[in-house]
Design goal:
CATH architecture of the domain at 2-224: Alpha-Beta Complex
Largest sheet: 11 strands, mixed
Order of helices and strands: HEHEHEHEHEEHEHEHHHHEHHEEH
Strand order of the largest sheet: 1-3-2-4-6-5-10-11-9-7-8
Distance between the termini: 29 Å
Bound molecules: glutamine
Subunit structure: Heterotrimer of A, B and C subunits.
GO biological process, one term: translation
Strand content: 5-15%
Shape: globular
CATH class of the domain at 2-224: Alpha Beta
GO molecular function, one term: glutaminyl-tRNA synthase (glutamine-hydrolyzing) activity
Family: Belongs to the amidase family. GatA subfamily.
Structural class: alpha/beta
Number of strands: 11
Number of helices: 14
CATH superfamily of the domain at 2-224: Amidase signature (AS) domain
CATH topology of the domain at 2-224: Amidase signature (AS) enzymes
Catalytic activity: L-glutamyl-tRNA(Gln) + L-glutamine + ATP + H2O = L-glutaminyl-tRNA(Gln) + L-glutamate + ADP + phosphate + H(+)
């Protein structure tokens, strides 16, 4: 109740929540109390949680930040939603996000932008900006996010919280509205690595309902916290510290690295020579997959339908024109172009080849180091409307994060100092299934 009240009081300023589901929350809280009384409570029982509005929730609207799904109530729960509910967590509501998770500032949402709790008129990052702002402002103890090119880590960095994107396939995508299926991964957004470990243990593990889910049981990530960093090698890619990096961010990450060295880790400069190809490859692959995934929103089965269509063609055309926002339409156009015959080889296939090179870079690096360390974003949070007119400058915000998605690697962001009153995020990338190790490094640092 305390958290629901806080959501109601503070959200007029933050706009972090699209739907508050007070009734469901109170019922779940009662169930959690009963569980506790029966001596069956786990560590997450009764803990208040917000879900990014990309996860289907039975009986509670799932808008995906879009007019297209403004009226959509899913008939089932996403696996992530179900598992966290089974762990006893209490869902307070659904968080604001960039439309269909396309954006780095939360400004593409049909429900308006979210404010960064650290400074007014400043973006929280995106696309999981509502989740990040809500956790930073203590509206809930934790929130879920999804990360296709940085959407958990970038807003976590800009809002001063902790967020982890697991290995591709570690967490089920069932019931999570698809943006770019080969890149999308869900993960927790919390205050600390300790909290993230608890949530990730509950979220991860094989799910027969997702064909890309990996057949591997969940792990007790909390049990892996507290290991010494002695003997661990951290790699600092020289490409992550080049031109374009804000001096405050560079200084904060260098200080954090020195701190980790004091804790026993060894630092080593490495190179990821193809990392500059990450953004161009990502902005071919992601829109291509999006254009295909978003074809289902046709105004026929569910979602927005235009008024008085003249015929089927008009129904498709106007429902999609009116239901989707500008950024989503831009991505559909880019993606459709990249996949069209004659251009497929030049763009999509090429991007897939680049993707392999990026993966190979990481594999080579992981022969010499255990974890890669760098900044999550090139700069602290930027102003509202500062980058909306220039998509490329917006896309460049993801320069350090997209490569982990292209390679399918686990990666996380955690708070590492400030630039003025704005938080700075430290980025850790690990080899496949090394979530436990990443969380441990973060935990030791915190
Ligand atoms: N900002 C990136 C984009 O706009 C990443 C989004 C995401 O990870 N969902 O595509």
């Amino acid at each position: 109740r305390l958290h629901l009240d806080r959501c109601q009081q503070l959200d007029s300023r933050l706009n972090a929540i699209i739907t508050l589901s007070a009734e469901t929350a109170l019922a779940q809280a009662e169930a959690a109390d009963a569980r506790r009384a029966a001596g069956q409570a786990g560590p997450l029982t009764g803990i208040p949680l917000l879900h990014k509005d990309i996860f289907c929730t039975q009986g509670v609207r799932t808008s995906c930040g879009s007019r297209m799904l403004d009226n959509f109530v899913a008939p089932y729960d996403a696996t992530v939603v179900r598992r966290l509910q089974d762990a006893g967590m209490v869902m307070l509501g659904k968080t604001n996000m960039d439309e269909f998770a396309m954006g780095s500032s939360n400004e593409t949402s049909y429900y308006g932008p979210v404010t960064n709790p650290w400074r007014a008129q400043t973006v929280p990052g995106g696309s999981s900006g509502g989740s990040a702002a809500a956790v930073a402002a203590r509206l809930a103890a934790a929130a879920t996010g999804t990360d296709t090119g940085g959407s958990i880590r970038q807003p976590a960095a800009l809002c001063g919280i902790t967020g982890i994107k697991p290995t591709y396939g570690r967490v089920s995508r069932y019931g999570m509205i698809a943006f770019a299926s080969s890149l999308d991964q869900a993960g927790p957004m919390t205050r600390t690595a300790e909290d993230a470990a608890l949530l990730l243990s509950a979220m991860s593990g094989f799910d027969p309902l997702d064909s890309t889910s990996i057949e591997r049981d969940s792990e007790d990530y909390s049990a892996q916290l507290g290991d010494s960093l002695e003997g661990l090698t951290l790699g600092l890619p020289k490409e992550f510290f080049g031109a374009g990096l804000h001096p405050d961010v560079a200084a904060a990450i260098e200080t954090a690295a020195a701190e980790l060295e004091k804790l026993g880790a060894r630092l080593k400069e490495i190179t990821l020579p193809n990392s500059s190809l990450g953004i161009p490859a990502y902005y071919v692959v992601a829109p291509a997959e999006a254009s295909s995934n978003l074809a289902r929103f046709d105004g026929v089965r569910y979602g927005y339908r235009c008024a008085d269509p003249a015929d089927l063609q008009d129904l498709y055309c106007r429902s999609r024109s009116e239901g989707f926002g500008r950024e989503v339409k831009r991505r559909i156009m880019i993606g459709t172009y990249a996949l069209s015959s004659g251009y497929y080889d030049a763009y999509y296939l090429k991007a897939q080849q680049v993707r392999r090179l990026i993966r190979d870079d990481f594999q080579r690096a992981f022969e010499a180091v255990d974890v890669i360390l760098g900044p999550t974003t090139p700069a602290p949070a930027f102003g509202l409307n500062e980058k909306t007119a220039d998509p490329v400058s917006m896309y460049l915000n993801d320069i350090y994060t997209v490569t982990a998605n292209l390679a399918g690697l686990p990666a996380m962001s955690l708070p590492a100092g400030f630039s003025g009153e704005l938080p700075i995020g430290m980025h850790l990338i690990g080899n496949y299934f090394s979530e436990g190790r990443l969380l441990n490094v973060a935990h030791r640092y915190q």
